[in-house]
Design a protein that fits this description.
Blueprint lengths: L8 H10 L3 E6 L4 E4 L1 H7 L10 H6 L2 E3 L12 H6 L7 E6 L5 E13 L2 E10 L1 H45 L5 H28 L7 E3 L1 H12 L7 E7 L6 E3 L1 H17 L5 E14 L6 E11 L6 H4 L19 H11 L3 E6 L5 E8 L13
Helix pairs in contact: 5-6, 6-10, 7-8, 8-10
Length: 379
């Protein structure tokens, strides 16, 4: 798309093509006067056609602020600059019809020169840098939450122990039936509260684990047996468990809790039925977070065809007490305990999802060199 009204046009076009950022010139009638190759590639429609106006260009993608709120066309940097407003640089996310996203650092400058007036828009694709920065921020936030959860769990557990001991003393004293019933109800409530404290301890990674060589496929089988009563007829369970996995060193009961929580989470995401896939496999050549050395992992994948998770929520789902379920339907500690247990095993847990396209959780657990011997093939 040539530059109109600017001389020498050929020199300017060559400069704009070599700067490595998206450059777009829009006149006051919102016509696209110029777009360099970077911009054309960044905003090309699936059909390959190039839009001729700014409005046509904006129909191709949804623009969002860092919180995931849509930025309508009348509030877009280009539109504001066309109105004569001073526009500061902004970090925005463009979401495209194919589900892909780009983080863009944008500028919009009004200009008037040689009979042409409009807006010069500059955009730098910072997707990689932003995702790395957000991942680092998320990790730091999770570590901070872990420290807070550990302190809270410790203090709350001491309170519960004191209450429980006091009630135990009262139960051995003479009293009415009504008194004993009240005390029994309090004990039930304390038991529930203790389970919540245990989940906080799982997230904060302060609990004692009992490590031993573990057959992951056996743990998956045990978890499926536990959740079988929850599996409705409209949910199809598909398993694909590798029969040549090495053992890992883990706390089998805690690993079972991880798998159960993820399966229950998947079931909740299938209110109208669907497919639940569970698979295990060997992953090789992944880097550890601590040393950066190459490390083999056993991967447990739990995927569903359910409602999916909006991208703006995916960075929060492992935080304690964060839940999208209605009040009274969840504590928000299931996925946070998954995160804590996996981290305490020096592993990692990742999620990939899109609204309406289901979700997949991948738990990767390192293979110990001491216990890196294969399972015997059964059958």
């Amino acid at each position: 798309m040539p530059v109109l009204g600017l001389q020498p046009a050929g020199l300017l076009e060559r400069i704009f093509e070599q700067v490595g950022i998206a450059v777009v010139v829009i006149d006051h009638q919102q016509k696209l006067v110029f777009a360099n190759k970077t911009a054309t590639a960044m905003f090309r429609r699936p059909s390959g056609e190039t839009p001729s106006t700014f409005e046509q260009l904006r129909r191709h993608y949804r623009l969002e602020d860092p919180l995931g709120n849509e930025v309508p066309i009348e509030k877009a940097p280009v539109t504001r600059a066309l109105r004569g407003e001073h526009v500061e640089s902004e970090e925005l996310r463009a979401r495209f019809p194919d589900g892909s996203t780009k983080w863009l650092l944008t500028w919009a400058y009004p200009f008037s020169v040689v009979g042409l007036s409009g807006v010069l828009a500059l955009m730098i694709d910072e997707t990689v840098q932003v995702e790395l920065r957000r991942a680092a921020t998320q990790l730091e936030r999770m570590e901070t939450l872990g420290v807070l959860a550990a302190g809270l769990a410790h203090d709350f557990n001491n309170v519960l122990d004191t209450i429980s001991l006091s009630i135990g003393s009262l139960l051995i004293q003479p009293g009415t039936v009504e008194d004993r019933q009240c005390l029994d109800q309090i004990l039930v409530a304390i038991t529930k509260a203790s389970k919540l404290v245990k989940r906080l301890m799982q997230f904060s990674r302060v609990q004692d684990l009992h490590y031993r060589p573990v057959n992951v496929n056996e743990v998956v089988g045990d978890a499926l047996r536990l959740v079988r009563p929850m599996l409705r007829p409209d949910i199809l369970v598909v398993t694909n468990l590798s029969d040549r996995l090495p053992y890992i060193v883990a706390d089998s009961s805690q690993l079972e809790q991880v798998i159960v929580n993820l399966i229950v989470n998947a079931i909740d995401a299938l209110p109208n039925g669907g497919e639940l896939k569970i698979s295990t496999a060997l992953e090789s050549g992944s880097k550890t977070q601590d040393t950066g050395e190459l490390q083999d992992f056993v991967a447990i994948r739990i995927a569903d065809t359910g409602v999916g998770i909006p991208q703006e929520l995916q960075s929060h789902i492992f935080e304690p007490f964060f839940t999208t379920k209605p009040a009274g339907k969840g504590t928000g500690l299931g996925l946070s305990s998954v995160y804590g247990i996996v981290k305490q095993h020096n592993g990692k847990v990742n999620v990939s999802s899109a609204p309406g396209a289901g979700a997949e959780f991948v738990v990767s657990l390192p293979i110990s060199k001491v216990a890196a011997f294969p399972l015997r093939k059964v059958g």
